[in-house]
Fold:
Amino acid sequence: MTNDYSQPDFYRFNEDSIKLVRYVINKNLESTNVLDVCAGSGVIGIEYAQLKKVKKLVFVELQRDFQIHLHMNIQQFLSDDVETEVYITPLSKFYPEEKFDLILANPPYYLPDSGRISPDEKRAIARSFIIDGWESFFQLTLRSLSDNGKAFIVLKKDFKLQQFLSESCPKELIITIEEQLDLIFVCFEHKLRSEFP
Structure:
């Protein structure tokens, strides 16, 4: 796993993205319609689609600097059998026509007041929710996730961030947090799913 991905100079994906893919693969989900949010160079979606049967893979990324890398990686590492779409847009403006069985993300993980904002503006946007925020992520999840679907994200282990997520998660979503070493894996699903086991 892990190809020689094309990436911009200002940002490199880290092992967290690969760990998220492994974590979700181990859940043995049947997910043919997948959304990669905060996609960057497309690593998470592509790695997942190489291991599971995916019919459609949609990438959403805010920064236009990633666009050329996304397209290069899709062309080089994905089978033509996988239908792909790329959207360069803020999360708050992404309104897909379809719902997704699976949403995956390694989102910007620093809270705005954490004091760890990079002096490089492009890198700062990739690491912190400066333009989009958690509310935009939650709303995108609510409107894009199928009734029986699941959204998974990976974050650095941070008590303040875990508390924030637990308190901020919309009441329409169930949130489950699992800690593994220095990471947390967070799952979101519609409450409707829990009513019908």
